């Protein structure tokens, strides 16, 4: 077995073997592109590493990054790894009050944001240093929220050694996938799906990164750069499929595409199987913590419509009732996963650990069932969680922000079915003073990240709270048609 190699050493090796190969392309809104070779990425990451070291960043320290999908983001992550530091990306568009809460949990030694762009650019004039080979004690962190909206960071709690198995294409579980791949990155890189493509980069694949998702631009890039794969949410796939003339576009270079983050509506699954072929369409289910993974290919989906697949990558599944007992095939319960090849994580922040059995099966609170063939079907996400456009919104967090408004006496936030977003964030408000839906949405926009802002608002005389002040969001959803 090969000696373990740090992320920094893996980058240096890639630069030595393929110094002039373009391994990174960045597409800005409007179409401008920036390209980086393997040698250029290694050189710039080394220069930024020295500059970060001068700001006090050391092995084991956290580097928080509130940056868009830009060269600066990727180079700063690579620089952190070169120093043995732990990069923690976060949303760059959070309001100041929310960003300060997240930063208080991350407790980074150095924080980089848009205002640091000039400082980062200036490092290009610095000498290219020789750096010690250092291994981060944790690979990275991903920012998330607890069930009450409390900020937390999920640390990949394993040393930062490159492992080619973790960079293997998801589709390789079904058959060989030619390498190197050219991977379109349409998702924000603070999200685990976008961030994890950096492992593919270190493995020798090429990335084509969108600064901001735009369906028309994404298809242009697929054609121009012979993109072979991408991972997208249902909302992204819906917008891509709705482009005029999409059937005439050249998607033939796509060897496989992966859908995750939320269940895929059957009509949309059939649409994409028609666009790229069922053998190239994959669906996956998993979570940032890496409790486990399921997946299936489009031709399997046709026989198990609505499923998110069978266990892959060493995953085991149990469906348990409220007493922790296994339920028979076809009966719903809490989905529990255990994985032998991942799942090394720990939380930073006050959010509690996910519930788990004594023998290591953990649950994210999703309800589902297994059929007789071992395929998993999800009935809904955790009771309170709203999955909108592939992003997780916790109602309590939105409610807490809205309750600061003097005209709001009480509020309940729920997710309602929506053809565009899967679920839309909907606020049910008991007013304390005259108020309009526009007033509520304007206020929310000043307090919350855009994806958390209610898309619809309704007013009621009183919310149906119990004597114990509890509220059934499930009942509110059912009364409004699901």
Give a verbal description of the structure:
The chain is of the alpha/beta class and 482 residues long. The chain has 2 domains: 5-380, ANL, N-terminal domain (Rossmann fold); 386-479, GMP Synthetase, Chain A, domain 3. The chain is built from 14 helices and 26 strands. The protein has helices spanning 7-17, 38-54, 71-82, 96-106, 117-122, 192-195, 197-202, 215-224, 234-241, 266-276, 298-301, 395-402, 437-447, 473-479; strands spanning 5-6, 22-27, 33-37, 62-66, 86-89, 110-113, 141-145, 151-156, 161-162, 182-185, 206-210, 229-232, 256-259, 281-285, 293-297, 310-312, 315-320, 333-339, 345-349, 367-370, 376-380, 386-388, 391-393, 408-418, 422-431, 456-459. Strands 3-2-11-10-12-13-14-15-16 form a 9-stranded mixed β-sheet. Strand 24 and strand 25 (422-431) form a beta hairpin. Helix 1 packs across helix 3. The relative contact order is 0.09. The model has no long low-confidence stretch (mean pLDDT 91).
Task: Map the helices and strands.
Blueprint: E1 5-6, H1 7-17, E2 22-27, E3 33-37, H2 38-54, E4 62-66, H3 71-82, E5 86-89, H4 96-106, E6 110-113, H5 117-122, E7 141-145, E8 151-156, E9 161-162, E10 182-185, H6 192-195, H7 197-202, E11 206-210, H8 215-224, E12 229-232, H9 234-241, E13 256-259, H10 266-276, E14 281-285, E15 293-297, H11 298-301, E16 310-312, E17 315-320, E18 333-339, E19 345-349, E20 367-370, E21 376-380, E22 386-388, E23 391-393, H12 395-402, E24 408-418, E25 422-431, H13 437-447, E26 456-459, H14 473-479
Parallel strand pairs: 2-11, 4-5, 4-6, 10-11, 10-12, 12-13, 13-14, 25-26
Antiparallel strand pairs: 1-9, 2-3, 7-8, 8-19, 14-15, 15-16, 17-18, 18-20, 20-21, 22-23, 24-25
Helix pairs in contact: 1-2, 1-3, 2-3, 9-10
């Amino acid at each position: 077995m090969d000696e373990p190699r740090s992320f920094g050493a893996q980058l240096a090796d890639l630069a030595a073997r393929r110094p002039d190969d373009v391994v990174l392309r960045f597409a800005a809104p409007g179409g401008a592109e920036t390209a980086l070779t393997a040698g250029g990425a290694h050189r710039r990451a080394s220069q930024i590493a020295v500059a970060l070291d001068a700001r006090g960043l050391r092995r084991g320290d956290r580097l928080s990054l509130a940056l868009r999908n830009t060269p600066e983001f990727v180079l700063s992550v690579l620089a952190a790894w070169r120093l043995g530091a732990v990069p923690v990306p976060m949303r760059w568009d959070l309001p100041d009050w929310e960003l300060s809460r997240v930063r208080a949990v991350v407790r980074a030694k150095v924080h980089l944001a848009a205002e640091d762009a000039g400082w980062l650019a200036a490092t290009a004039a610095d000498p290219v240093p020789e750096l010690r080979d250092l291994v981060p004690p944790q690979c990275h962190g991903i920012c998330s929220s607890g069930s009450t909206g409390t900020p937390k960071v999920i640390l990949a709690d394993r040393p930062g050694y490159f492992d080619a198995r973790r960079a293997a294409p998801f589709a390789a579980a079904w058959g060989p996938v030619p390498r190197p791949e050219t991977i379109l990155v349409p998702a924000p890189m603070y999200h685990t799906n976008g961030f994890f493509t950096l492992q593919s980069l270190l493995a020798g694949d090429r990335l084509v990164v969108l600064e901001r998702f735009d369906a028309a631009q994404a298809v242009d890039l697929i054609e121009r750069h012979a993109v072979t794969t991408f991972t997208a949410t249902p909302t992204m796939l819906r917008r891509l499929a709705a482009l005029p003339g999409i059937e005439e576009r050249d998607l033939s270079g796509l060897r496989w595409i992966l859908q995750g983050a939320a269940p895929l509506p059957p009509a949309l699954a059939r649409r994409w199987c028609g666009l790229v072929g069922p053998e190239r369409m994959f669906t996956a289910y998993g979570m940032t913590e890496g409790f486990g993974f399921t997946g299936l290919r489009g031709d399997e989906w046709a026989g198990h419509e609505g499923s998110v697949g069978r266990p892959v990558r060493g995953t085991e599944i149990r469906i348990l009732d409220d007493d922790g007992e296994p339920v028979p095939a076809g009966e719903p319960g809490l989905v529990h996963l255990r994985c032998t090849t991942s799942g090394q994580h720990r939380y930073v922040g006050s959010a509690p650990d996910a519930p788990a059995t004594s023998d290591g099966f953990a649950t994210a609170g999703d309800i589902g069932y297994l059929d007789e063939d071992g395929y998993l079907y999800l009935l809904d996400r955790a009771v309170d969680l709203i999955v909108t456009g592939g992003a997780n919104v916790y109602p309590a967090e939105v409610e807490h922000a809205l309750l600061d408004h003097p005209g709001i006496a009480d509020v309940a936030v729920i997710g309602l079915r929506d053809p565009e977003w899967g679920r839309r964030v909907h606020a049910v408000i008991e007013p304390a003073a005259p108020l309009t839906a526009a007033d509520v949405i304007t206020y929310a926009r000043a307090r919350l990240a855009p994806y958390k802002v209610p898309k619809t608002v309704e007013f009621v005389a009183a919310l149906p709270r119990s004597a114990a002040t509890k509220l059934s969001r499930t009942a509110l959803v059912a009364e409004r048609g699901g």
